[in-house]
Amino acid sequence: QQRDKLKQYQKRINLNLEKERMLARQLLKEGKKEKAMLLLKKKRYQEQLLDKTENQISNLERMVQDIEFTQIEMKVIEGLKIGNECLNKMHQVMSIEEVERIIDETQDAVEYQRQIDELLAGSLTEEDEDAILEELNAITQEQIELPEVPSEPLPEKIPEASPIKNRPKPELVAAS
């Protein structure tokens, strides 16, 4: 709000400066040099006020930016605080001993499964492997149905095809 008030003040001073400059020219034309000097001194004083106002506006803008940045920092700190509290609650729920126990149980279960796999893989002999492969081939053969192969020998010479009589020509069939 102060910044806006200062900007309005600047506009007013700028308008006054322009008016006083024109008035000083008019006084000089009329030959009133003393009044013109006094008016120019006043104008100079107002220009200095304008510079001070500009500095104050700059300081206010810097302060506003600092306040906004501090507000952002406060939100970040609040977020970190909440995150830290959440982590602490999670750590209370799960202790290091609990995590170590779960990891040990998982490793034991993996080791147990590996032992079962080794037993299953090692318990089959070569004969068992052959029997399994034979059964797999039998199942595969059952699934494939091939046509029967003729048992008589094939003729050596292929008889020529006899022409079919009274068969309509394709052009006539399409036209009718």
UniProtKB/TrEMBL annotation:
One of its GO terms (cellular component) is multivesicular body. Keywords: Coiled coil, Endosome, Membrane, Protein transport, Transport. It is found in: Endosome membrane. Its main location: membrane. GO terms for biological process: late endosome to vacuole transport via multivesicular body sorting pathway; protein transport; vesicle budding from membrane. It comes from the Eukaryota. It holds the Pfam family Snf7. The keyword Ribosomal protein does not apply. Residues 143-176 are annotated as: Disordered. Residues 28-70 form a coiled coil. Transmembrane segments: none annotated. InterPro entries: Snf7_fam. Belongs to the SNF7 family. This is CHMP6 protein. It comes from Ceuthmochares aereus.
